[in-house]
Model the fold of this input.
Amino acid sequence: MFPRIVVSTLIGLALCVPPADAQGTEREPHQDAALSAIVGDLQVQVEELRSQIETLTHEAEASKMEAAETRRQLQTTQAQLAASSSSEASNSNSLYAHSVGPTPNNAPEVASIAEQVDLLSAKVNDQYQTKIESGSKYRVRISGLLLLNLFGNRGTVNNIENPALAQPQDELAPVKGTFGGSIRQTRLNFDAFGPTVFGGKSSGTLQMDFSGGFADRPGGSTMGLLRLRTGVARIVWKDTSITAGQDGLFFLPVSPTSYASMEEPEFSYAGNLWAWVPQLRVEHRVISFAGSDITIQAGILDPASASIPNLDGSRLPSVGEQSRRPGVASHLAWSRPVFGGKLSIGTGQYRSSQDWASGGIVTRVNSWLESLDWNIPLSRWTSLSGIVFRGSALGEFGGGVGQNVFFSLPPSASPVVATGGSASTGVPKGLNTVGGWTQLKIMPVRRLEFNFGFGEDNPFASQLERATAVQSYLNETPARNQASFTNLIFHLRSDVLLSAEFRHLRTTPFSFTPPNEEPDSANHLNLAVGYLF
Done:
């Protein structure tokens, strides 16, 4: 695409060379004819070079052997172009030597066109020098984001780099605030482009970051461990695609915009459900009327829960995997172009089973989700996006503020005053919850955007009040969690960005002894500098 743009620009420059009377200088007729001939020849040569570059680009993607041959042809063409340019320059000097009058004023424009042609040719050569070879001989691209985050917190939070919950202060060791920095949210992407399979284009993507933990040594907090995020292979036809690998939740397709929260998405445990799950899915696009599209997605997922695995490398089954049933999900969306953007409204569904053991008895708990998502352009420079959901036993996605089930006594049991006792004192039941988030995006200019958002996750208080214990992946029992943020993102240039974000957290802990405790609150300020490569 870049060569086409440059070549089109050169042609435009050549066509825009002003005629003699526009230069304010009188010249002899044979001078004008000579200069016109030079410009005309350069235009023809630029057009020929543009055609050759298009051919070379296609051949470079086909195979390495064809690319080498194409490079040889290009070098030959460059030699011919140089010889032709030298000959034309000699003819021009000869004409000028026999003429009377001042030096033509459009000579600098002619020289500029020639210089840019040479620059364009050099960039085509760079394409071969920087190409990454793969074992399959197909094209591989490396990209990513080098991200520095400087952050400060006021209050106590669960994670000073990317907090999701506000916590009560420790009375014995009160902490008023913190400040720090990190590049652990830096991201690496590997994209591979494969052959055509059954008429569809094959490709693969692998994404990693450095938020996999800390080195077990002094100063290890700045030595982030490499972490696998997603890795998928796909085959794409005109209206259908198949994706296999580990990916995000396709039935919850939108997410807030933030460079302060790359380790985990913004509003995690506050209405934004997410996970990177092994899955196999199919997508089909149905073209309807008036430019509208209907997209249908369906797939199966690993029903793994968010339990922490053994550190010795052995993998024990989670409560979802013990059910011996995969998770099943689907998503239906309608979209159409609006204000230069894309208006979309969709609905998602998810079902899986979990086997919980309590008191020597295995109880099956059904995990389910119903959701509504939207992305609505309000004008050419504003849009509104978000998700609302209702479900049960969604702790592995962060639903219920990371709480999957609660344990309660049978109705015939004698009443007791519970203080968060063991799970063996009750029957496991799925914890119902409702939540969601919304974000307003404002882009007054192309390089600058403002985002404002709010999210909330609210487990059912009626179930928590009957609980003898609550299973939580966060080792806490929040009754509600709310988060709000505002950020500014400025792209200094295409590969350099600056961001500033303020986040407010409000977490209500649940007390097994009424009345419930007052909410805890905390503030998070994050400054980010990113370099995209």
